[in-house]
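Chapter review. Work through the record for AAA family ATPase before attempting the end-of-chapter questions.
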Amino acid sequence: MTDWKIFQGTHASATDKLAQLLSVEAPSWRQFVDADQQSTWDAEADGHYWQQLREIAAQKTRDIRRGERFRLRLPAPPAEDSSGADTNPYDSVIEAVNAALYLRRPLMITGLPGSGKTSLAYALARELNLGPVLLWPITTRSSLKEGLYEYDAIARLQDAQLSEQLSNLGQLDDIQQAAADFKNIGQYIRLGPVGTAFIPSATPRVLLIDEIDKSDINLPNELLNLFEEGEFEIAELKRLSKAGAERQTVESDDGLQVPIYKGKLRCREFPIIIMTSNGERDFPPAFYRRCLRIRMPNPSEQALKAIVAAHLGETNVQQFNHVIRAFVSDQDSEEAASLPTDQLLNLIYLFAQQPALASQDLDKSTLKKLLFNPLNNAGDADA
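Structure tokens for AAA family ATPase:
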């Protein structure tokens, strides 16, 4: 029997997984192709678009490493370790990702800082060969308009003034070119990461909305219609379409030129949206209803060893096994439950670079006290 899971968490890219994803028909209530989109659909142009995207993705070595080193499938524990031998704490995360893929719904992932919430998006894009991840890092000032697109009205005004100056000088050829430039509003519009994710395509993009709990109180409500309808309008182009200019070309977040018809973008396949949250706030019930939710588990000792091996090599796992155990022990204490995983990597990296440091008594190590300082401790590390 074929495994229903498209995403396996193996960090290995495979084209057959993408084919499996595209073969799964969306629920009828999550299908977005309308008559207008079908009439302007160009499969050949879409294929060229994805060829360019994969060329861009191949140059993003940092993103590639991030996707390859993230671990959801853990190696089998030693034979003498029978605790949890038949269970993987990340199984629920893998199932949640696949449910979101099938249902075409955003996935909200909560968990401690450093638990791998953000890296999951890169692992998903890597494994399913879905091009570069579209990243929208949220701040308290983030607005939906910013995520959708930016319109450079100042540049257009400057070009309009240039056209007028050339007209006064009687330079007819230059006048015609300048006039054509400033009237082509599309060249002054750049899609943001969210807007780019909704470009109509037969293959979905991966959109990472990072730390959404930092957002203004209104942003989750502003996202509701977009998540439900899968479309948005660009007002500046909508006005042009009513005047007869139905097709405009704008720049995507990836720097590619893409066509927009009648001032509207409507997805063909709903994007794969991963939203991360540190659990610092609640969201409206209507927002939760449009998402699937899962919590990233705190990494076990086995998971930490896999993480260290992926980033620093198996040799360092063996050499600094006592450091990993100390980290797990510290995490078990209530006051240190918020220790981020990257601090463990930092400490082992320093020990690996300077063997003299590693010879210290770990419990008395100033570095340990510095790096194993809980995030919920507002004061300095007690040295």
